[in-house]
Design goal:
16 strands, alpha+beta, 16 helices, five-stranded mixed β-sheet, BirA Bifunctional Protein, domain 2, eight-stranded mixed β-sheet, about 450 residues
Length: about 450
């Protein structure tokens, strides 16, 4: 029987040099999350059906688990988590009396979704989430803490220029309700607006978006007003929104604007530059458990690509599990998605194929003890060191170092051992010199810094 060995569509597998980049990004994210005093947790990959379906809108996208030749006799159906948020709600409900509030959590783990295979739409992917959960009313400063932490993270990842789009979700909903768009149609209209940048390259007329709205609403005048509202998003500012709100003269708009302004000004006070923030009333995360202020981060000049990170508030995500409401605000970086677009556009440097700094050659068994002593000394000094596993020709071992991109090669012969020196070859500049065997770690560290 022939066995297919190609990986399953949109279940990514990295080459070593790609994994190095991904791990570096994870380290940067983790460092910035910790710097803002978020606590690391992990939740189970597998959840019960009642947990997964407690908030999810489409259970067809969930991967269900069962044994081969399994009959549906078990009362508890199990599936893979599709995000990190619903499992967190269960986690908070389970441990609500053990956690200290505000509970600041971060989590970098994989999630799974059964989606139609398409570019940049993975079925297995990493999310890097932070959340602030409170057992009382959640101040707006929590939103600012989240946003500033993510800004610092994305800024250090240094991939491209990006823009953080901010909106109060009820601002868009209120506008649509004034057009007499309600209930099911309201959610569908928001979903279409949310996808407008993916649907249309034409950012002036939005023909595909317009066509979908006309098909749904059967009223070209209302659709024209929606498109006009969308077109304003590039021109929105706090002053223009305030003018829009006052001209409408509705108290609920004034309340939403006040909250939006508080978040915006607090971000500036937290040293988030103004050029990275955009008030965008046309964005609205349309899943029904997102409330209040919502945020989307897009790569500049590439708005048609899905947002690389987004965040939102939840007022009652734990309500299905316990009676108490635990409001929280959270953010998610789509790490796999971010890396995929950077790889696709050749923005990453793959020259680094290994994290090994030094290769100690294995020339002859009679030098093995001394070679292993050198390996031990280097590793004790936290220098990434590899020892070639078999006795073989120097040319073969040198070729291995070249192919793997290892910079320093150490060679021990009987003559060098007798003189307490080691031959060190720098593969990058093609130079070789002798160094003191007792100071090998100190010398290599100095070389690495130069």
């Amino acid at each position: 029987m022939d066995i297919r060995i190609d990986n399953i569509s949109w279940f990514p597998e990295n080459l070593p040099e790609e994994q190095i980049v991904e791990d570096r990004y994870k380290d940067i994210i983790r460092k910035n999350y910790l710097k803002a005093w978020f606590n690391s947790i992990e939740t189970s990959l597998v959840e019960r059906e009642e947990v997964l379906c407690s908030k999810w809108w489409d259970d067809n996208e969930i991967y269900w688990l069962h044994r081969l030749n399994w009959e549906f006799s078990d009362d508890s159906k199990l599936g893979l988590r599709f995000d990190l948020t619903v499992p967190l709600a269960r986690y908070v409900a389970l441990n609500n009396d053990k956690l200290v509030y505000p509970f600041k959590r971060f989590q970098i783990q994989k999630v799974y979704r059964w989606e139609r295979a398409q570019r940049w739409r993975y079925r297995e992917f990493y999310q890097a989430d932070i959340d602030i959960i409170w057992n009382w009313e959640l101040p707006l400063l929590a939103d600012c803490e989240i946003i500033s932490t993510i800004f610092n993270t994305l800024n250090e990842l240094d991939f491209w220029k990006f823009t953080i789009n901010i909106n109060h979700k009820d601002f868009l909903i209120g506008f649509l309700e004034k057009l007499w768009i309600w209930e099911d149609k309201l959610l569908k209209v928001i979903s279409i607006i949310d996808k407008k940048d993916k649907l249309d390259n034409d950012k002036i007329n939005f023909p595909k978006t317009r066509a979908l709205l006309e098909e749904l609403l059967w009223d070209k005048e209302i659709v024209s007003q929606i498109i006009k509202f969308i077109l304003l998003w590039n021109k929105w500012s706090l002053a223009k929104i305030e003018k829009f709100v006052w001209s409408d003269n509705e108290l609920r708009f004034l309340d939403w604007f006040k909250k939006l302004k508080e978040v915006y000004t607090s971000l500036l006070n937290l040293w988030v530059p103004k050029r990275y923030i955009k008030i965008n009333p046309s964005i609205s995360r349309w899943l029904n458990y997102y409330t209040w202020i919502v945020f989307e981060t897009f790569i500049d000049w590439f708005e048609s690509f899905w947002s690389v990170s987004s965040w939102w508030r939840y007022d009652n995500l734990t309500w299905n599990f316990i009676k108490n409401k635990y409001p929280w605000v959270g953010w998610s970086i789509g790490l796999s998605r971010l890396l995929s677009v950077i790889w696709a556009t050749s923005k990453l440097n793959y020259q680094i194929k290994t994290l090994t700094d030094v290769l100690v050659l294995n020339i002859d068994e009679k030098y093995l003890k001394k070679c292993l002593e050198v390996v031990k000394k280097l590793r004790k000094a936290w220098i990434n060191t590899e020892f070639y596993l078999e006795h073989s020709k120097i040319s073969k071992q040198i070729k291995y170092a070249e192919n793997k991109g290892i910079r320093y090669v150490l060679i021990l012969w009987e003559d060098e051992i007798n003189r307490w020196v080691i031959a060190m070859k720098d593969m990058f500049v093609r130079e070789q010199k002798e160094i003191d065997i007792l100071s090998v770690a100190k010398i290599i560290k100095k070389e690495m810094k130069s």
